[in-house]
Amino acid sequence: MDYCAECGEPLSIQADEDDERTEVSQSRYAAEDEATAVTDTEDDNPDGSAPDYEERSRPAPADSWGDRLSQAAGALFVAVTQVGGTFQGLLDDPRFRAHLPGGSLTLVGVGLMGLGVVLSVAPPIPGIGLMDSGVVLLWGALAAVNEWRQVHEAPEYQGRPVPPLPPALANLPRETEHPAIGQTFALLICTYALLMLGYGPISWVWMLAGGLLGYDQGRRYFVPPEEGPPEDEPRSALHQWVVAGVVLCSFSLLLPWTRGDTWLSGLPGGELPLAALTQFMLLLLACSAVKHRGLGGMHPLFLTLMTVWLMLWFFLMKNSHSPGPWLFLLGVLTIVIVVARHLVPQRTPEAKESASDFDLQG
Q: Is 152 exposed, middle or buried (0-12, 13-18, 19+ CB in 10 A)?
C-alpha cells in the first residue's frame, strides 16, 4: 500500500475522501439546477399546469366585421345618449314647463306645426303641398284636442292653466281619445321635418316641432308595460339593425334620385311621389324595432305589407344614374333580411329532433 509523502496517510483513504467531495458537489449542483428549472416553470406557467405549446402559439382570432360594427354602434349610442340626456334635462325642467300651456310640449309642437304650414303659404317659402297641409292640420287639431283634455283633467307638469274644452269638442267619440293619435301625429311631423331638411329657415321650424312632439309622445310610446315582454316573444338584438337600415334609407332620400347634369345633381328623393308615406313607414319600423317587444309588437301582416311597399316604391322610383337609389337599396335590403328572419320561425334543435323522429316513424 502506498502512503502519502506529505501527510503519511494511505492513498486509498485520500481517494475516498475526494470521491465523497465530488459526489457532494454534484448533488449540490443538481439541486440548484432543479430549483432553477422549477422557478422558470412557475414563471412561465403560474397555474402549475403543463403548458400546451399549440394553444400558446395559436394567435387570437380577429374580430369579425359584425363585432366591429357593434362596437361602433355602441360608441355612437353612448354619444347620442349623452346629447339626449342634456336635451331631456332642458325639456323636463319645471321652470321651463311652467311657461307652457298646461306644461305640455305637445301643444307647443302643434302650434309650431301650424306656424310652419302658414309660413309655407308665402310663394318664396317652400311647403309640403296643399293636400299634405290639409292632412297635417286636421290630424294636428285632433291631437291638440286630446292633449288639451288630458292636461286639463290630469296635468303631468305644472304650467299655465288651460280652460275646459267647449261642449262640442268635449263630447267627441271615445275612439278619438286613443293615445295612438298623438303618437302617429308626432311621427308624421318628424317625417316632414326630415324631408324638409335643407329648405332654409322653414326647416328649422319643422325640426323644432318634430323634436318637441317626438320627445313628448315618444316618452309615452316607449314606456315598457309593467308585466314586461312575454317569455315566448323575447327581444332580439337583430331587430336593432332595422334602425341602421332606416338611417340609410332616410339619408338616401336627401340625395339625388333623378338624372341631372352631374352624378350629384337631380331631384332629391324626398320630392318624389309618395316619399312622405315611405319615410313615415321607415320611422314606424324604427320605432317598433327599438320598443320593448321589438318587431314582435307589430302584426305580421302589417309588417309584411310595409316591407313590400318599401321594395315596390324603390323599384318604381329607382334610377341607376343617381346615388340615392343605391344607398336606399342597401338600407332596404337590411330591413328585408331582418324582417324575414323575424317572420320565418327558427327551428330549435329539440324541434328538429322531434321532427326527424316523426319522419322515422312514418
A: middle
User: DSSP states of 288-342 as a string?
Assistant: HHTSTTGGGGS-HHHHHHHHHHHHHHHHHH--TTSHHHHHHHHHHHHHHHHHHHH
- Residue 332 and residue 276: Cα distance in Å, rounded? 16
Give residue 316's domain range: 231-346
Within a domain: 128: yes
Cell of 233: 316573444
Q: Structural domain tally of the chain?
A: 2
- Give the angle 53-57-60 at the CA atoms, nearest 5°: 135
Mention every residue, 6+ apart, whose C-beta is less than 8 A from residue 247. Answer: 331
pTM: 0.71
> Looking at the domain assignment, is residue 237 inside a domain?
yes
- Closest by CA position to 293, among listed 345, 227, 224: 224
- Domain contains 52: no
Choose the final residue of a domain: 200, 223, 246.
223
Distance CA 87, CA 279 (A): 24
Burial category of 309 from C-beta neighbours within 10 Å (exposed 0-12, middle 13-18, buried 19 and up): middle
DSSP for residue 64:
P
Report d(CA 316, CA 304) in Å as an integer: 18
Report in angstroms the alpha-carbon separations of 168 from 172, 175, 177, 339.
Answer: 7, 15, 14, 44
Has residue 130 been placed in a domain? yes
pLDDT tens-place string over residues 18-67: 555 555 455 555 555 555 544 544 444 555 454 454 445 555 555 566 66
Q: Could you tell me if 224 and 281 are in contact, meaning their C-beta atoms sit under 8 angstroms apart?
A: no
Which phi-psi region, left, alpha or beta, contains residue 269 (left: φ > 0; alpha: ψ -120 to 50)?
Answer: alpha
Give pLDDT tens digits for 229-244: 444 454 566 777 899 9
Query: Do 209 and 237 sit in the same domain of this protein?
Result: no
202 and 277 share one domain: no
Retrieve residue 24's grid coordinates.
457532494
